[in-house]
Amino acid sequence: MAKKPLGSTFTDVLKTFFLGRQRATLSILEEEQVQSPYRTMLRNFREKWSAMLGVYMFLAIFLAVFILPIFFPLDTQFQDPTQQNTRPTFSYMKYDKALQGNVASIDGGSVFGVGVDRDGKLYQWGTLSAKLQKMPPADKRYVQASAGLDHAVALDADGKVYTWGNDRFTLNMIPPELSSRKVKQVIAGHQISIALTEGGEIYVWGNSNLISIPVPKDKQGTFTKVVANTTLAAAITGNNELVILSSRETPFSYIPSEIQGRVRDVDLTERSAAAVTTDGRIYVWGGDDYGVMDIPAHAQGRAIAVSAGRGHFVALLDDGSVVAWGRNNYKQTNVPKLKNIVSIQSSYYQNYAVDKNGRIHTWGLKGYLMGTDQYGRDLFVRLLTGGRVTLTIGALAVIISAIIGIIIGSFSGYYGGKTDMFLMRLAEVVNAIPFLPLAMILSAIIGSRISETGRISMIMVILGLLNWPSLARLVRGQILAAREQEFVTAAKAMGITEMKIIFKHILPNVITVVLVNLTLSFALSMLYESSLSYLGFGVNEPNATWGNMLYGCNDSTVMSLYWWRWVFPAIALSLCTVSINMAGDGMRDAIDPKSIGR
Amino acid sequence: MFKYVLRRLVYIVVVFLIGSVLIFSLYKSVPGDPARLMIEGNKANMKPAEYEALYRDAVKKLGLDKPLVVQYFTWLFNTLRGDFGYSLTYKMPVRQMIGVPMKNTIMLNVWSLLPVFAITIPLGIATAVRRNTRFDSTVQVITIIGYSLPFFVIALLFIFLFAVKLPIFPISGVQTPGLRGTPGRMFLDKLYHMALPLLVMVFTSLGGLTRYVRATMIEALSMDYIRTARAKGLTEKVVIYSHAFRNALIPFITIMTGWFISIFSGSVVIERTFLWNGMGKVIIDALNQQDFAVSLAMVMFYLVLSLVGNLLMDLSYGLADPRVKLN
Questions:
Q1: Cβ atoms of A304 and A323 closer than 8 Å
Q2: Taking the model in full, what pTM does it have?
Q3: How far is A432 from chain B (nearest CA, A)?
Q4: A570 in reach of chain B (CB within 8 A)
Q5: Would B209 be classed as within a structural domain?
């Protein structure tokens, strides 16, 4: 037999499809030869632009959701209320150009930043709420500014305090005592503001229900510096002693006794504290997570200042370089190469370092490509991992239903009679009940006994178990038509076992139709999975799928104010199902000889 | 014919029995004790002995003390008599509770029928006649997009456009809360609330149905009698609408059965998104509140509905197409 022409086998078709057309030089006789059915199908398919577009779109989505999560891993347990519902932007550290080389004070808030230049002008950047945009009067000469969760505080050259942004929880009510005192440091914290006067007194105002910061009477008047996190504050007294300002006993209270009287600088993450002593050593105590205790060895004995974000520490060394350690989920400890730094300021996930020329260097969280959801989780990362889960569930559900459907359909079609009758009645029962309600009931009954991760496999099985009847019916019809053909009679005459006849002789003849059907039901499975998850009966939090990312989005606040929470998952899911259906539709037309219309 | 119907009825009974056993075992595998759930609220203000007595009464009342087979048959006969059990959340029999949602669902679905058919049938015919033209391929792509988009995405989009950006319609609900007025006024208010879900429902049905009409029309147009009709010199209008379309309607009967069932079942997703108090929402609420009696009663109801629907479909095939012999 002569060499087989290219494209005559199914493998060839796949090869040509994904690697492009490999032109073989053909003689005129070969050119005019009748094409193999697979080749005709391939040609028909490639001629249909919508089908090819569908294939390319799906491949792009597939590669994105299976490869990108390697670079953007999802921590399902991660939540951060300070980052909730922030819009897509990369402007958290995009400070005003005028500040560059001229900065006097700079600070980062949850999703924005504030700064003061050497001329006393106040700047802010990042995601600013309507209230934050109402800045204090521009004609004052500011010397320091601090940004908090959703408000900011500034201090002018006369020691007067200004606050803007969130004005609830009495945040806008600056204590009257401050009007007669000169303030030297202000802090905007988590719904709380703190002012430290020249006289060493600390005044606190804001949401005292959430955080209560008691100032010991005997220490009042001795403080030189104060820092705060979302639960408490810490202050250094004139004789380098450290005081934790909290009404409760917390891990923060266990200050290493050897540092008392030698504390030069201090800062707090959410669960731990770090202090720098006068001899340059760094001490960390409190909760040991995200590696906050792993102080870089070369920093010991050389530190002069420390600053902390939500879960990481940054220290300034005596040679003007900067080290960082601790939580690194937003690259907040990846310090660029810096020298001649004179001050550092870290907060939340942002870091600012100012060198001796007043130039600003930044690293850490710039913002979110697709914003964050109601728990402060990065939507882009959830979208990628969610897509992987959705596609996997869809694919495995289709495989399960394909196995059941092909087996039942084949037996039913080949044997006929009582088997056929019984199996088709079974298919009728399963098919009779509306799909979503039945899947929901099964999910509610089984789902209450298994873990959240177990639910993912459960949904696959439920979808697979309920989806087979249509395929079984299709296979049955195809087999019914094929079993009376001569090659089956011949196979029977040769004494081949029935199993072999069904699965090796008949099935390959009907496999194209089955493949088309599987492609279309892949899209359908994804739709069902996302509908179930959208209704709250599929995969639940904290696991992500495209469906459950839309759970609870049919609410006017989310719809209008937090549009990124529903727009991106909806687009991703729609693009994916549309592309699969376009490809599947093209395949169906390609294998149907009638569709060319000749 | 009569023999055929009889045989089909026997099938229906068999399938119904298989289905009912499956559903009953599902019902029994539900975690939790329905008797305890029934008297749940009374525990705090009762002596333990009284509570125990009440519990035993509840067990007896629900028939939980009898063997499973007896329970199954009691349940089956009750269901057949139309007694679908007792809703724990609504504290009333399921049959009584289901009335209003059923009416809402039927109302929404019946209203959506007219625009759906008014759009899809002409569009399907037009694309079939102008097959493989630019118009056809454009409509084909649009309809693929139409039926690929998840219902809830379309619903969210419509809410965003017509309730948030342009506040024409209410976001959700069946009726303005606390509205009292003449029946006419109440009805208008209901229509106003129905507009957006109706729009979404029509929109989601367009894609699939247009493609179906197109496929059946193409099938019909390729028949020999069409060639004959054209050869006879009939105008194209007569050929398409009189010869082809009537024959294309036959497979339509399958679709009609689907509609017949969905009129009563309601779309879970749309009713949940628009908080439309229909059958779909009843199922979701029942599942969320562990009120399994309601949801399983509804599954039984769907089962019967679809079995009857299938029978009607086959019978109407026989009536519509003289070539189909029922036996």
A1: no
A2: 0.84
A3: 5
A4: yes
A5: yes
